[in-house]
């Protein structure tokens, strides 16, 4: 019952899902993606795992490469976060968009490797896309393959699980029926709204970068200010990826007029006219979780300082530990952080999945022994 279940991560990106499953006690065999910069970050941080550059839309080729990379190892769990642009409420909603069909790559991998369980993560908009057609199609496909499938309803809110960010995500989890597995119950929230980890709880200990842009590797300048910061700083002696952005004086002047928790609607008439949309000129609130971290770095601002958050600050808000170093250009790093599943959220789900896996194995072995 102390078995370390093996995992491969499809559409792994920089490794948010994998990091969470590492923290939950799994052994990650491989992460597969097409983004070279993200894979360099993945290989640098997810120790012992193969980082494979593959086009997962080419199912047969990618499956053969995965099999060659992991050798004769059995795969217990497949986790995946297919690109969400096709499903996103802000992106294309054309059902013929090839990105909407990338979950088929997960189907092929599950069908070939027959893991005990799988997990698919995506944006909440996927649940209602085309009146739920896409969601039901995914459920039916895996049910027909012999998996009992559970779906988050409503989507999970990351801040309910210790992540200092109001990020909503939906998950599909399936287990092999023939191994004795049944319905999977997603973990219940561990925090209510009054006890969410705030933006200040997450990043107040990081250097302000006033009068400096910082460096790629910096020293801590103060003690942790919260239990969350202590957790993020565990086993870390330095700060990675904490480099500021060189804003123009005009941009800093506009930011300075946005109140804490405010956005472009709070600016005086005629100020900040170049950006007028929902997330424009948004300043975080120190006493609340952050907004959803995106892949850019132009619209959200530090709750106190007149600048955008650094890659490390965004990584903290995503719950990446400080030991996790992002590689590539700064733009690539922001993208890697924004595309990731918060590791703490992945960890909570992974721990619950492991309990279910352990229980299923126990039931299956009891049935085998009874038959003998």
UniProtKB/TrEMBL annotation:
Keywords: Methyltransferase, Restriction system, S-adenosyl-L-methionine, Transferase. It catalyses: a 2'-deoxycytidine in DNA + S-adenosyl-L-methionine = a 5-methyl-2'-deoxycytidine in DNA + S-adenosyl-L-homocysteine + H(+). Gene3D superfamilies: DNA Methylase, subunit A, domain 2 (3.90.120.10), Vaccinia Virus protein VP39 (3.40.50.150). Its EC number is 2.1.1.37. The keyword Transferase applies. Coiled coil: none annotated. GO terms for biological process: DNA restriction-modification system; methylation; negative regulation of gene expression via chromosomal CpG island methylation. It comes from the Bacteria. Belongs to the class I-like SAM-binding methyltransferase superfamily. C5-methyltransferase family. This is Cytosine-specific methyltransferase. It comes from Lysinibacillus macroides.
